[in-house]
Amino acid sequence: MQTNNQPLDNPMARLPSVDYLIQHPASQKLQEVYGIPELTKAIRIILQEVRQALMSQGSALILSEESLLSQIEQRLVQRAEKKVKAVLNLTGTVLHTNLGRAVLPKEAVDALTLAASEACILEYDLGEGKRGDRDQLVESLLCELTGAEAATVVNNNAAAVFLLLHALSEKKETIISRGELIEIGGSFRIPDIMKRAGAKLVEVGTTNRTHAKDFIEGITSKTAMIMKVHTSNYAVQGFTAHVEDEVLAQIAKDHDIAYVVDLGSGNLVDMSLFGLPKEPTPMEALKNGAHLVTFSGDKLLGGPQCGMIVGSKELIAKIKKNPLKRMLRVSKLTLAALEAVLHLYRNPARLPEKLTVLGQLTRTRENISAQASRLVSHLEGYFVDSNLAISSQDVMSQIGSGSLPIDLLPSCALVISGNSKSAQKIVPRIEKLLRKAPVPVIGRIKEQQLILDLRCLRENQEEILISGICNALKEIS
Question: What residues have CB less than 8 Å from 95, skipping those under 6 apart?
Answer without folding.
Answer: 101, 102, 298, 299, 300, 357, 399, 400, 401, 402, 403
